[in-house]
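Sample entry (334 residues):
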Amino acid sequence: MRTFPLFSLFPEKQKNWTQLIEENTPVYKLDQLSKELGHSEIYIKREDLTDTISYGGNKVRNLEFLLGDALNKKTKSIVTLAPLGSNFVAALAAQSERVSLPVKIYHFVPHLNNQIEKHALYSSKRKGIKLKIHKGAFPLNFLKASANFGKKLLRSDKSIYRMPTGGSSELGAMGHLNAFLEMMDQVKRNEIPMPDALIVGAGTCGTMAGLLAGKVMTGSNIQIIGVRCVDQIVCNRYNIYHLLSQILVHFKKDNPIRLKDIELVENEFEAYGQEQADSKQLTDLMLSTENIELDTTYTSKVFSYLVQFIKRTENRNRKILYWHTYSSIAMREC
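Predicted structure, serialized as tokens:
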């Protein structure tokens, strides 16, 4: 059964929304992992299970609002700009196919690996999807993709819907505000205890901003920590703060969170999708203990930080919630 806590509070927000997620995503204790790591209380929110048939992951939360908005505006097609192999593009390709909206994606290539290539292949196989790949060295290919994307938008065709990169806009981030409220309802139903800390990957900032908005609107004391998984120019405290403030203004709420209060772990890595040194070891650990797959772009980086976090003395008795965002369906199909 799925609950809709945001619409219970603000029923008018259901107007620009379409249902893509059938059930609340599960929350539970990671028993085997907790034993393996010697920390008694590690929990998970399975955002990978937003869709178990086409393609899930946290981005389906954004798309319920964004595709709902596109449909409400009688859109005939969607355009967006994204790195090749993006999890968001895989989700957009699958979910736009469900609602019969064609999509053109202006791609640039910051890095190539097996996961990125399989995600791109998965996206290209979906009905109505066109990938325009701009090759060459990064960031020149990004500038070229951006220029062509901009030319498309300058045509001012109201039948074309401009999808924000990563789905991260005030509207898209509302999906993660709703996810936070959903998790709080699950705590009330004793599915898990109230977490002391929530650890999540941060990319285009929408998930992090939405979760922080949920924290503000519920008055929660949960420590929310984002782990930066993309270039700093895209993911930084300023962008999170700006998006969070936009969401709260929308709901006529003051923003009590200061810029310096936003906890963002500044991961160091060579490129988008680049594996860290411990990626394979941690991926194998999560798979062997909990049968949950991690990815190179986001979740292996987040999991690496989580392992470091629980080893700190001050966190020994704290309840830690890992917000798992990766859908592995594309890797299985291609």
